[in-house]
């Protein structure tokens, strides 16, 4: 996740990423950015399968 995020950012993509090892507050902040349109791409691991809200 982190590797792909950095590769995309280096190519001027607006990208956020999250994974299960992040604190919940950080994941919430990333989701807020994504939902508001601040970032257009969200890269995740299996955290989606466990629910985001």
Task: Describe the structure in your own words.
With 53 residues, the chain is of the alpha+beta class. The chain has one domain (2-50): P-loop containing nucleotide triphosphate hydrolases (Rossmann fold), CATH 3.40.50.300. It is 42% helix and 15% strand. The chain has helices at 2-10, 24-36; strands spanning 15-18, 41-44. It has a two-stranded parallel sheet with strand order 1-2. Helix 2 (24-36) links the parallel strand 1 and strand 2 (41-44). The relative contact order is 0.25. The mean pLDDT is 88.
The helix fraction, in percent, is 40-55%
Low-confidence segments, given as residue ranges, are: none
CATH topology type: Rossmann fold
Helix/strand-derived category reads alpha+beta
Total strands: 2
Number of continuous helical runs = 2
From the spread of the alpha carbons, the general shape counts as globular
The H/E string reads HEHE
Terminus-to-terminus distance: 20 Å
Assigned CATH superfamily:
P-loop containing nucleotide triphosphate hydrolases
CATH architecture: 3-Layer(aba) Sandwich
User: Largest sheet, order of strands side by side?
Assistant: 1-2
Largest sheet composition: 2 strands, parallel
| CATH hierarchy class name | Alpha Beta
């Amino acid at each position: 996740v982190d590797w792909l995020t950095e590769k995309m950012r280096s190519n001027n993509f607006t990208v956020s990423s999250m994974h299960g090892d992040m604190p919940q507050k950080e994941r919430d902040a990333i989701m807020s950015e994504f939902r508001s349109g601040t970032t257009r791409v969200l890269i995740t691991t299996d955290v989606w399968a466990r629910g985001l809200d």
